[in-house]
Design goal:
18 strands, Rossmann fold
Length: about 450
């Protein structure tokens, strides 16, 4: 029986653990919190739970775990992937991650090939399903002799319409710190042949209404208009990875419900994205923190100060969202030494949780404009997936299941490429997408000719 070692027992670990156990692999879940690993294994005879903290472990302890497995899956924060990868290379063990390939990981390509192992990255949802579903269409266009003129791809993890019941239009299906930190990222994309650079502080000024003209499974109405804004570097390495040097537009972006960008812009302008820890007196409140960041007296009215800062009325949705999140009142900071970003993160964790039975939603929309002979055509490819009430979230399924399928394909010999890989080859994306369709994770494609 092949042994799979999974590092991490967080929000997306459940579906891949369940999938791999059902496929008759031995699955070892190594987590800092043993109880979380045990819960995932759920007393399955092929499952093993181990306590393991990569921040405290020695090289010998890490290598001891990897030495005993056939493949390691890292669901840890991305900063630890290279450490795991080096141990896998040393002991000739395959590896899978759902994260972007970092420059440090890319440098391990030759070493992985020399060790005759596959290190498959970017096999989650975004990155992952986005790559595979896009590459499928790009390859089909190229095979017909077509040229890509424009490619845009937007993804969002959101509450399902029936669970969209708070002023922020958002709930947490993955790390709140990751959600907030993403607001600090600069963005870069290609638009009509021109490179557009957006500094991190201006990110939330660059959003557009984004209509999603499809119905989710079981829905009677189209999803409607969301907000789309650019996500990191859309140009490098994606134009090269997708093999579309001819394109004049290349944008990868994030989808959110209306009002998110305007609110997060104010969050950034106030100073909540600051990572510098500060010492606060015991009992320091969120209202006082806001006043301090606005350079106002600590005991003054934080709501009035916020209204004056942005010249907005009390009825403005911005005020409603700040107030609902507890950023204007007497709630006390969770720690006496904390950064503004982590103080905000705490409030996200307190207020933006799904309640029992609520569903999350994953929305992905690709738009391709291309030319075949002298004809201009457009394809819109849309995936809307909902979480299972009282079961797995859509985020955990769409991140974890592609990774689990990739694990199985490496161990059963379907994936034979070695080195540092991403899933843009037909031999990978066709079977993965096919199996996801069997799990009702699928795209609807619409073609417009001479649009």
């Amino acid at each position: 029986m092949k042994k799979i070692l999974i590092f991490g027992a967080g929000m997306v670990a459940g579906p891949p653990v369940k999938y791999l156990l059902e496929k008759n692999f031995q699955v070892i879940v190594a987590s800092r919190t043993l109880q979380k690993a045990e819960a995932l294994i759920n007393s399955h005879p092929n499952g093993v739970a181990k306590a393991f903290d990569i921040t405290q472990s020695t090289e010998e302890e890490l290598e001891g775990l990897i030495r005993e497995c056939d493949l390691a899956v890292s669901l840890l924060p991305y900063i630890f992937h290279v450490k795991v990868a080096k141990a896998c290379i040393k002991h000739h063990k395959h590896m899978v991650t759902t994260s972007y390939v970092s420059p440090e990981m890319r440098e391990l390509d030759n070493e992985a090939k020399n060790a005759s192992i596959s290190i498959l990255n970017e096999i989650g949802v975004d990155p992952g399903i986005d790559h595979m579903s896009a590459q499928k269409i790009i390859d089909s266009i190229h095979e017909k002799g077509g040229k890509i003129l424009s490619f845009t791809s937007y993804t969002g993890g959101l509450p399902a319409p029936d669970a969209n019941n708070n002023p922020w239009g958002y709930k947490l299906s993955w790390s709140p710190r990751g959600v907030i930190l993403a607001g600090r990222n600069a963005a870069k994309y290609l638009k009509d042949g021109e490179v557009v650079d957006i500094p991190g502080e201006d990110l939330f000024d660059h959003y557009l209404p984004f209509p999603v003209n499809e119905k989710g499974p079981g829905d009677t109405e189209e999803l409607g208009v969301l907000e789309g804004y650019p996500n990191r570097n859309s140009i490098e390495p994606y134009i090269e990875v997708y093999g579309i040097p001819e394109t004049k537009t290349m944008i990868r972006g994030t989808l959110r419900n209306p009002g998110w960008c305007r609110t997060m812009k104010k969050i950034a302008d106030v100073g909540y994205l600051n990572l510098d820890e500060q010492e606060f007196p015991s009992g320091f409140t969120y209202g006082q923190l806001l006043n301090q960041m606005l350079n106002k007296p600590l005991k003054s009215n934080s709501k009035e100060n916020l209204m004056a800062k942005f010249n907005i009325e009390e009825t403005d949705d911005i005020i409603k969202r700040f107030e609902w999140m507890g950023l204007l009142g007497e709630s006390v900071l969770p720690k006496d030494k904390i950064s503004p970003l982590d103080a905000l993160c705490h409030q996200f964790e307190e207020h933006l949780q799904y309640t029992t039975g609520e569903r999350d939603m994953l929305v992905m929309v690709h738009q391709f404009e291309y030319m075949i002979d002298s004809s201009t055509e457009k394809i819109t490819s849309t995936m809307i997936d909902y979480g299972i009430p009282n079961g797995d979230s859509s985020m955990s399924r769409t991140v974890g299941l592609p990774a689990a399928i990739g694990v199985r394909m490496i161990l059963d010999g379907t994936i034979t490429d070695r080195g540092v890989l991403v899933p843009v080859k037909k031999s990978i994306y066709i079977p993965v997408l096919k199996e996801l369709e069997e799990m009702n994770i699928r795209f609807i494609e619409k073609l417009e000719k001479e649009f």
